[in-house]
Amino acid sequence: MRKLLFILFAFFAFAKGNAQILDPAKWTTKIEKKAENTYLLTFNVVIEKDWHLYSQFTPDGGPLPLEILFKDQKGNFTLVGKAKESKTTTAFNDVFGVNETFFHDKAQIQQEIKITNLKITKIEADLNYQVCKEVCINLEKKFTFAIPLNSKIAKEVAFKTDTVKVDTIVSKPAVKQIVVPAKSEVEAAKPATQKGLWSIFFIAFLSGFAALLTPCVFPMIPMTVSFFTKQSKTKAKGIRNAIIYGISIIFIYVVLGFLVTWIFGADALNALSTNVWFNIIFFVLLIVFASSFLGAFEIMLPNSWANKVDNQADRGGIIGILFMALALAIVSFSCTGPIVGTLLVDAASKGGIAPIIGMFGFSLALALPFMLFAMFPGWLHSLPKSGGWLNTVKVVLGFLELALAFKFLSNADLVLQLHLLEREVFLAIWIAVFGALALYLFGKITLPHDSPMTHISVGRLLMGLLVLTFTIYLIPGLWGAPLKLINAFPPPMEYSESPMGFGGSGVKTATAILPEGAKSGPHGLVVFDDYEKGLAYAKTVHKPIMLDFTGYACVNCRKMENNVWSDMRVFSILNNEVVLISLYVDDKRELPKNEHYISKTTGAEIETTGDKWTDFMISKYKTNTQPLYVLTDFEGNNLNTATPTISYVGVDEYESWLKTGISNFKK
Description:
Layout: H1 2-18, E1 25-35, E2 38-47, E3 52-54, E4 67-70, E5 77-85, E6 89-93, E7 98-104, E8 106-115, E9 122-132, E10 135-146, H2 152-160, E11 165-167, E12 169-181, H3 189-212, H4 220-231, H5 235-264, H6 268-272, H7 276-294, H8 303-313, H9 317-331, H10 333-348, H11 354-375, H12 388-416, H13 423-441, H14 458-474, E13 518-520, E14 526-528, H15 531-541, E15 545-550, H16 555-563, H17 568-576, E16 579-584, E17 597-598, E18 605-606, H18 609-621, E19 628-632, E20 645-646, H19 651-666
Parallel strand pairs: 14-16, 15-16
Antiparallel strand pairs: 1-2, 1-11, 2-8, 3-7, 3-9, 4-9, 5-8, 6-7, 9-10, 10-12, 13-14, 15-19, 17-18, 19-20
Helix pairs in contact: 3-10, 3-11, 4-5, 4-11, 5-9, 5-11, 7-10, 7-12, 8-9, 10-11, 12-13, 13-14
């Protein structure tokens, strides 16, 4: 009886100790023969309710994207194109300031391969991915696909059936798990998608309205409407033709959006938008567009295109009106082209039908005036006369394109971690750009196509004051102000010359010279990112150790640092009474080969620094959730017996927990 009770006790203790190890994604796999030596590898996953699994194409700077790594590929097999995914959802993450792309409920990833070494019998693949709910977990799973042998039997099977299906053998059920608490995830996938598409529509609509007020388009409104009303036999026919003309404009731009989606694929540009070279190329394009808007030169399509289309417009009827709309698109390209190009790239980065929605919103704003003024021609008299103000609109758009260009250059710099365009430099550029725009609106700067001015209008004055206010708002960002109004645009606070701003207005690091192996962390705290070095230092200063299991992509970790660690009561303790060791579980630095090992807890192969800290956390503290804070002595014993670890809590609870552990250390 006593043995039975002991076994039951041990069982429940083990279950409790492992209850926090999460695995919300359940995978199945298969291999299908598509042609001679060509196979389709399929990964199917069922995702627990309310969890999200991130796509290969979620942008850099946010949650970690899915990654498929094939072993021993060279000389054995080649990949046919990029792995294809089932339908995804895209929504904006206001903490990271990027659009994240993810799956919910279930997903399928397929990769076609071509065998080049007919002697191989298996394909080994590693999946690295992140799933999120209230916390985020980085997982790695290993799969082995069995390849049918090139034997007579295999050939007979292939002859009898078009598709040979072989279930994969999972080489290791164990997984590497890194958990990073995130913001409260998007409430529901469908509403999030709708919200994203509505945002694209409204931005595109406003962009179309801006294009309407440029010198290439605005003068065309009275000319075109007058043409339809005067050339038509009846007023009703004139209105009908103008409406057809407006619908034709919408049709042309929507077809353009459809072609971008169809030619490149729903998610191809999404993936491209996270590419370093794409961001650099688009930076250069936006600089060219901005220079054109500012008056350096005109971007125009060949005149022969316009002439050919114009000749077709003389045919009359609906076809003629369609060609008239196409002629407008070509003639106005110097003004609309940069806007359309920017919109298409931004919309395409969202994936799915976003380019079509974007072009619909843009063209609707462009077409509505032609239809409305045809219905109510008397309104034409209320239109402001063409003049210098049209060029002002174009120049303002040029300044906005110039500012936006540096966002793409910043993306490339962040991915490469070059630290060439850190937060202070980015903000300095924006302050210069918007400051110059304010001076332009006040009439202090003139550009090539501007008309002479004796005074500025009230509207221009108000616009100048608004831009000047925004410019002044940016300046404190150089000293570490968060600038929440534009948090999606500049690099994050930690990606700067000094996380506290170059004015040094924030909390200073207490130690003038950092201890060996330490670095300046959040709020200037002295932080170690290596356990052994931190432990050695703790022994020399005789202070307890606070382990901070964190991650670079950890949103709630950043929230704890910003909201709890910044409180002077907590900061004082962290700065003076403990040695802080932050262990990043998503640190991808490769361990030396002689330090690789197989985890005794999970059975996973430990290859990176992040793997090592993850295995340490799971084996020592029986959890894979972050942020995770532990107070220990020099032997690794917990100092808080009642609450050994703590996670996402408020200031009062955190302070009390710290004081209790430190008090126990001093006894």
